[in-house]
Design a protein that fits this description.
With 244 residues, the chain is of the alpha+beta class. Helices cover 17% and strands 41% of the residues. Strands 6-5-4-3-2-1-12-11-10-9-8-7 form a twelve-stranded antiparallel β-sheet, with helices on one face.
């Protein structure tokens, strides 16, 4: 075999190998998750922002914060998947920015409904879920409804009494849907993704957060309408836990 022919065969083999290697890598690379809220154990989010609180005699106090939210544990029971989440963004509400992270419980029931149980009640709910002999009656309440799928503009989710109101108060609803780039969020997929803005308003306060499926909450705002108590957070870093 001539040297030139040998070189041509070698080049052809290299092209085949590189093509196979790229295809193999593409097949192994995990596709971005479309779960509305990632619940894998070890998933965590880093937020930066500010907490506004009432100062003593100097007026409003603004404290810059860096805040970590983390899935500490995933509990499965029947058709329920429950994530123990340490440091949910709402832990900062009504604080001076130096709040201690607590454990909340995010429960996905079947494929459609998510319930959020705050730190005050989460520990008892965790014990109930971990005890295979404990009844689950009363565990999920319409008052704790956090998300209902499918998410689409104008969709509402709350208890039946609030759902019947015609003023939109005391009921979560998808106020807007748009496309966002997360290229400035470390660890997040850089493709353009859909973001759902969800708002909940009462007479004394309101909450607005943006949710990107596969990533979770990318911004969170709480505003009190009287005494100064505001929380404003934006996601700067995202790390997905190992796939189950």
């Amino acid at each position: 075999m001539s040297v030139s022919r040998f070189r041509r065969l070698l080049s052809f083999a290299a092209i085949l190998f590189l093509g196979w290697d790229a295809a193999s890598f593409a097949a192994q690379a995990p596709a971005p998750s479309n779960d509305p809220f990632p619940m894998s154990e070890g998933t965590y989010w880093i937020y930066r922002g500010a907490v506004h609180s009432a100062g003593n005699q100097s007026g409003e106090l603004v404290t810059k914060v860096s805040w970590k939210t983390e899935v500490r544990k995933l509990i499965r029971r029947g058709n329920l998947n429950a994530a123990v989440i340490n440091g949910f963004p709402s832990d900062l509400n009504w604080s001076d920015g130096n709040a201690k992270p607590g454990d909340s419980l995010l429960i996905r029931s079947g494929q459609d409904d998510y319930y959020l149980i705050g730190p005050d009640s989460a520990q008892q709910s965790i014990k109930t879920l971990e005890d295979s002999n404990a009844s689950l009656d009363g565990l999920l309440s319409d008052d704790d409804l956090f998300l209902r799928l499918p998410l689409k503009q104008g969709a509402k989710f709350c208890d039946p009494e609030s759902m019947a109101r015609d003023d939109g108060m005391y009921c979560s609803f998808v106020s807007s849907v748009d496309s966002v780039s997360l290229k400035d969020v470390k660890g997040a997929p850089h493709q353009t993704r859909e973001a759902y803005e969800i708002r909940y308003a009462t007479n004394p306060d309101d909450i607005t957060f943006r949710l990107v499926p596969g990533v979770g909450i990318v911004s969170y705002d709480y505003h009190h309408h009287g005494t100064v108590a505001d929380t404003e957070l934006k996601l700067v870093e995202f790390h997905a836990g190992p796939a189950d």
